[in-house]
Amino acid sequence: xxxxxxxxxxxxxxxxxxxxxxxxxxxxxxxxxxxxxxxxxxxxxxxxxxxxxxxxxxxxxxxxxxxxxxxxxxxxxxxxxxxxxxxxxxxxxxxxxxxxxxxxxxxxxxxxxxxxxxxxxxxxxxxxxxxxxxxxxxxxxxxxxxxxxxxxxxxxxxxxxxxxxxxxxxxxxxxxxxxxxxxxxxxxxxxx
Length: 192
Known about the structure:
By secondary structure, the chain is mainly α. The chain has a domain of 76 residues. It is 61% helix and 12% strand. It contains 8 helices and 5 strands, in the order ββαααααβαββαα. The strands form 2 sheets. A 3-stranded antiparallel sheet has the order 2-1-3, with no helix packed on it. The radius of gyration is 23 Å and the shape is flat. The protein starts with a strand and ends with a helix.
C-alpha cells in the first residue's frame, strides 16, 4: 500500500513531508518506543501524576522526534508555531483533528493506493520484484529489525516469516501442554 497526501493542488508522497526516509523514521520510532518504555518504569513524575504524568514524560521526546522527522515548513506552509497553537486549542475545545489539519496545514486528504499484482510462486520474475512499488513491513523475529518485502514476493516467503515469529513470541506446544496439565492438577486439588 502506498499513501499519498494532498496539499490542496495535487497528491504528493509522504516522503515529501519528511526529512528522512520512512524506513529510517520507523527504525527511530521503534528505538524511541523501547527507550520510553524504560523511562516510564523509572519516572517519578509518571508515578505521581498517573496518566497525565505518563503523557508528559512521553510527550516531549515524541515531539522532539516529530520535529526531527517532519519538514514543518512544508507541512504548515510557513512558520509552524502559531498554527500548532491553534491546533492544540482546537483539540482542547473538542474539534476533530482531521478538520484542524485541513484548516491549518497543507495536508488536506489522504489517498491510499493498493497494488495487487498477479502472485504465483512459479511466475514471479525478478524484474517485476525490482519495480514492485508496494511492500509489506514486518519485524524480523530474530534481529527485531523493521524490514520490508515486496508485495509480489510476500506470498512466497510469508509462511517462513510467520513460523519464525510464532516460534519467537508464541507458546510452544509443549509449554501449552504443561500449562494445561498444571491447570488440571490444580483444579483436582481444589475439588478434593
